Amino acid sequence: MRKVLLLLATVVFLFNSVSIAASFWEERRYEPVVITGGILKDFFGVPINEIYMYAFDETTGKLKLIPFQIDEKILTVFEIDLDPDPVKKYMKSFERHYYANSGTGIVDDNKFDVDDELVFIVGDLGNLAPGEAWDDVPYIQRRTIFVSDPDNPQRFVAGYLVHSTEKKTVPSFYNFAYDAQNDVVKNSTYSIKMARPSGLIQDISFFSPFGNGVDIFDTQKIRVVGRIDLGLIQIQPGKNNLPALNDRDNFFIYPKENYLSATETPRVRLVREAHQTIRTGDVLFSLLGVSFFVTTKFYPFSGTLEGGASLDYETLREMFEDPDDIYLQFELVRQSWDFNQNAKNMKFYNPQNNGILVDGVADNNVNKTLNSTNNIREWTMLSGEQGTMFSYLKINDDTFEKIQLYYHDNQNGGQDDDSYIPEGDTGDNKSFGDNGLKIINSQSLDLGFTAYFVGKNKDKAFAEQLAHNIENPVNFEVLYVGVKEKKESIQPDGFELSQNYPNPFNNATEIAFALPATMDVQIKMYDLQGHLVNTLMHDKMPAGRHHVKWDGRDELGHDVPSGVYIYKMVTDQFQDSKKLLLVK
């Protein structure tokens, strides 16, 4: 009878867990997770090719290998030739974190360390695995990676990081590939081509079933009007009949057109790094020491661009010996996504607009001035049978006067600015759903953004959920599995606080600890906010090994919710803490 009750309890537990995990999985399935090496100290020194990641498959009742990636980051100093004239050989040194095996020729010892990054996708995780699922999986050590909803810790999925010497083939079903000659990133969801020589996005298409396979993109537009005064050099783009800085004529991968690198064997992330600068007229900013790295991280359903034009007063002060002559004022900076005629009949969404038809016919009252704030967070989305492109821009700038939404839908091209910008049109000189942000009177220039490339015909609620996910990324905890130790007969020669067993647990768990002498000991349970949940022990205990249990209740006897908790052992001479996972 007892076995029957336990079986029924297990079925109810798994059913509830599956339904909770399913809803969370659906909302977060596209989201990447990046865990830095410092959080996985127990894997330090383990060969990269002996680390695997598993998730529980509800259909088969077994653990399965999932695609994941460990990017090895190396801090290095290197020099590049910033002058095309081989006689002059103007060299500049850079200190840069590189991703090993990313086309740089730089490698490390291929062992996991603090600078490495573990990367995987939430959608590849699953429910917690029952203990018997591990019968067929050999391992030296394993850790549970618990990924939860920041708004509701009871919604979660899980994966398992394993050290095993048994060689296995890690799946790579996202089909990442990089065409270096044409600067094209492809995977099972999308294809993105960068323009030469600017290195900015030129083409975007979505593969079936995410879209219809046609290129819907014209160009990533950038417009800059203002004044750049570097002492001996003064530039006023967009003023006095001079053209504004734009994506086609002024942004360059430099010193050579092919000066970029990309991950050679990506599974869930392709890192593309390019060294870029700005040219205006005969002035090449790299020769003035103003250049920057642009790092784009492509995931199966998204991409994040970091870096950009580091043109701000503080950065330039560090580059020049006489900073008093430096003056920057960008009267207008506009970054937007301009689509082509293949985007007709898609719909445009942002927080202020819901489903404006992209048809090449001008729309009124779309552009709005945003509230003046130092932390702008704004999203836009185009969606239709062709696919869905969602963009999220984050601007941490305290110098601008105001920021406006920019939207221009006109098959005849042109602009929708308050004042005309010389050389405002690039690409095909047409505008279909051209959308982005316009910054007025700023003293910095930043090109960072996050974009998602997902399935077709999404609505505003979907976009709002994506924006929420970006602003509130998933929580993750790396938890010890908990192995019940059999040391009772061995007298301890020091203090010990063991990992609880079982972990995760449902009804009750046991915590083992050891004392080298008789003394007062406290063991208390806390939530992740540091609030006391329960005092499990506060007593004088003799030397030896001891155990204490926790049944998932607080000091008043009330059940506490599922989630990660911290138990802490304190004596006059020792203290330690560990995490555990309660799942109900």
How many whole angstroms does the radius of gyration measure?
28 Å
Helix coverage percent = under 10%
The number of distinct β-strands equals 40
Q: What's the N-to-C terminus distance?
A: 22 Å
Number of helices: 3
CATH first level of the largest domain: which class?
Mainly Beta
**CATH level-3 fold name of the largest domain:** Beta-galactosidase, Chain A, domain 5
Arithmetic mean of pLDDT:
81
Largest sheet: 11 strands, antiparallel
Structural class: mainly beta
Shape: elongated
CATH architecture of the largest domain: Distorted Sandwich
Relative strand content: 35-45%
Tally of distinct domains: 3
Q: pLDDT under 50 segments (min length 5)?
A: 1-18, 86-91, 93-97, 101-107
Write up what this structure looks like.
- A hairpin with a 4-residue loop joins β36 and β37 (532-541).
- It contains three helices and 40 strands.
- It folds into three domains: 2-72 and 108-165, no CATH class; 177-471, Beta-galactosidase, Chain A, domain 5; 486-582, Immunoglobulin-like, CATH 2.60.40.4070.
- The protein is 8% helix and 45% strand.
- It is mainly beta.
Quick rundown:
The chain is mainly β. Strands 17, 18, 19, 20, 21, 22, 25, 26, 27, 28 and 32 form an eleven-stranded antiparallel sheet that branches. Strands 14, 15, 16, 24, 29 and 30 form a six-stranded antiparallel sheet that branches.
Question: Which structural traits does this protein have?
Answer:
584 residues, Beta-galactosidase, Chain A, domain 5, Immunoglobulin-like, 3 domains, six-stranded antiparallel sheet, disordered N terminus
